[in-house]
Amino acid sequence: MPKAVTRTRRKASRTTTQRMVIPMIMQAMIIKVITITMIITTMTTVMFMTSIVVMTITTAIPMLMTTNKPPRPRRRAAVRADAIVEDAANEAVAQTPADRSEMPDNEAAALYRLMTWLSPSFPVGAFSYSSGIEWAVEAGDIKDAASLRDWLKSMLADGPGFCDGVFLAQAHRAVSSPDAAGLRDIAELAAAFVPSRERYLETSAQGRAFIDIIRAAWNCDGLDQLVSACDGVIVYPVAVGLVSAAHAIPLAPTMHAFLHALVSNWISAGARLVPLGQTECQRVLAQLEPTVVSTGKRALEASLDDLGSATFRADLASMRHETQYTRLFRS
């Protein structure tokens, strides 16, 4: 066969082979590109879904564990500030009672005894004495609540109320010192200081009854020796001062409780004599509160040299009551 024909055939064969191979190569490349694209797309999708799942889990776990998760530690400065505040609060609590409404046992006992001893129900016979008020009512000096208030205000501030307060305070201090000789002198002076026979009967009888009941029901160490040291009559204010000091009851509350009991008994006598209603009596007691407080303070600050009375009409009333024709009270 001629060489030219052979070359032509070979050339045609190569051309045919190239035409068949090129499309196959291109097809394979396209398939690879598509495969790679699909792989990349799948991986991207998986990564995106994974990130969503991770974010969801990260958000959900704290929400699900809120009640069980311990509190996040605070910053050091905040912790230090809270510690300072807590220390200050603990120190304040340590310096004050746990409950401000509570009362120490010794104060509670003192209050209990004062309320008992100076109650109208304590059997010293105070209800049977009027301190001359009965005569003042008959004479017309006391005729209503206002005049009773004015009469008692003078008796408290300028008469037997103030003097009795001074004797109580001095007796209390003599027992607390202790000063047996001073206590005896105070008791003697107080008994001699009353202006009339009936007033002497009133204060000495109540003083004796007070001491007797305390000995029988509320006795304490040293009380009998203190009573013996007085060596004579113990009038009512001296008896109260002596006993309260023997029981270690502070002077100031004893003073105010005593003056409250004194003015309450006077108002009770006036209520039966005028007569007055219970509400009117309470108004008088409320109006006399400033006088009771100020008289108590003066008596606490006074000495025996400050003793004195300027209630001459009340002193005359206690004297004239001795010869009064009709009487409900012993004084």
Summarize the structure.
This protein is 73% helix and 0% strand. By secondary structure, the chain is mostly helical. α5 (145-158) crosses α6, α6 packs across α13 and α10 (236-246) packs antiparallel against α11 (251-273).
The structure class reads: mainly alpha
> What is the helix content?
over 70%
Q: Quickly give the CATH architecture of the largest domain.
A: Orthogonal Bundle
- Assign an overall shape: elongated
Order of helix and strand elements from N to C terminus: HHHHHHHHHHHHHH
Fill in the CATH topology of the largest domain: Urease accessory protein UreF
Number of domains: 2
Main sheet? Answer: none
CATH superfamily of the largest domain: Urease accessory protein UreF
Total of helices: 14
* Head-to-tail CA distance between termini: 178 Å
Radius of gyration: 51 Å
Arithmetic mean pLDDT: 82
Low-confidence stretches: 56-70
- The tally of strands reads 0
Strand content: under 5%
Q: So what's the CATH class of the largest domain? A: Mainly Alpha
